[in-house]
Amino acid sequence: MSKDAHPRQALFAPRGAVATTQPLAASAGLAVLRRGGNAIDAAIATAVALTVLQPGSNDIGSDLFALVWDGSRLHGLNASGRSPALLTRELVLERAPEARATGALGGAQATAERVMPARGWLPVTVPGAPAGWRDLHERFGNLPFADLFEDAIAYAEHGYPVSPIVAHHWSRAADVVHAALDGPEFTEWTRVFTPGGRAPRAGERFRNPDAARSLRSISGTAGSSFYSGELAEALVRHAERTGGLLREADLTGHESTWVEPISMSYRGHEAWELPPNGQGIAALIALGLLDGLDGPAGLHQRIEAIKLGFADAHAYVADPAFHPVPELLDPRYMSIRRQLIGETAGEHPAGRPQRGGTVYLCTADADGRMVSLIQSNYMGFGSHVVVPGTGFSLQNRGAGFVLDAGHPNVVAPGKRPFHTIIPGFLTRGGAPVGPFGVMGGHMQPQGHLQVVLSTVDDGLDPQAALDRPRWYWHTGRQVQVEPGLAGEIDELRRRGHEVTVVDAPGAFGYGQAIWRTDVGYVAGSEPRADGAALGY
């Protein structure tokens, strides 16, 4: 579904902007800006609306990460959840002895080894999104918290026409993934998300009154009902009845973490990511490696740099509360790693992470505040577990753990897993340029790298940077490219890369970006998705 031949035009707005993958969600954020809300209010309203409008990619039961420019400095929020106290490596191996794959997230081995299950209760960690919305609002919000839920509740209660790309992925989740699942924990998903026995088609109206009730409960209690009220009680009851591990103490003990963002300089700019447990450090490593090369970096060098970034991210990124991450961005260490970028394709060890189900959004307001926010289930509808009467699916971010007992990211109680979802932010000499992100599992650091290079090296505006054809390194020497990069194929193959041309929705991620200008903002929205950049 390449759109290279028909690129969108960038949006220029004097006062504020919202960009995300679903136009109605972007509209909800813009409405908040026009009512006097700030960029943080708009981000929350957009994020909440996305749980209703794009439920396969995210939901009320998601995790969340955000970067906030408050007008003078950057703040980071890690709103990802921890594993249940009952979740141990031994329990996973006992319950899912059949779970096997070649390689594992974080593993360098080529032999078959056990990996975390992707569906059902075992990969469910405490959802962090509701607490993340609350924490962002408590620190930076302007409008009343409940007001930010109005559009989302209305869409859930009265319905909305499903957009085309969302419908495509929804259908696949129902017909391919969910059809293969069996167990009482999956029954409610069928009732909620396949009304009439199938996924809704593009343009068909979908209603989710249970989700409307859940959102009213969250908005009216500032999120507390999800962790210690009626929604928490329903979640624990369903877990106890159907083999889940989440208990009251897991939910009441949840808290987000404010963190200091990390950065890497590249040609007078600074790219910012959140520190581990996310994989954003892979993009920073790649940028640092390229920044130190003699001469311009071609596509081959860019691919080799991201391979090296992933090699370290998969080996060392884990919950820093359990395993502090080494100084991977140290200039001396990077100079050693840079020497591994040779003339031909190398096989730098890395894992085989799955592609993700995620939404990304960015907002900006008239006072210079900007937000980069990413929210995700994982792998499309996450665990496929829906608590009866709630209308939302639970994420399966625990699938990011590994079962190698000696690995920093090994599954354990009360631990945050390796996360693929990463918001990005760009500055120049410390001054804000703006928020950006490209979602899509293993694609995300690669998308971040490509957007930054297109912006800094080539001077492209956000829309032009997002329109540009993308490449995706998979594993080993395997590289996928969009048709627009066909002219690069012969050179890549000459250097030993195994290149495949792919033209499919979602294969290269979905991005958004907003850059600050002297007269306002310029914004872009992913041409491969349903989304929009809106402003005023």
From TrEMBL:
InterPro entries per the UniProt record, alphabetical: GGT-like_enzyme, GGT_ssub_C, Ntn_hydrolases_N
Segment forming the signal sequence: none
Highest taxon of the lineage: Bacteria
PANTHER family in the cross-refs: GAMMA-GLUTAMYLTRANSPEPTIDASE (AFU_ORTHOLOGUE AFUA_4G13580) (PTHR43881:SF1)
Protein name (record): Gamma-glutamyltransferase
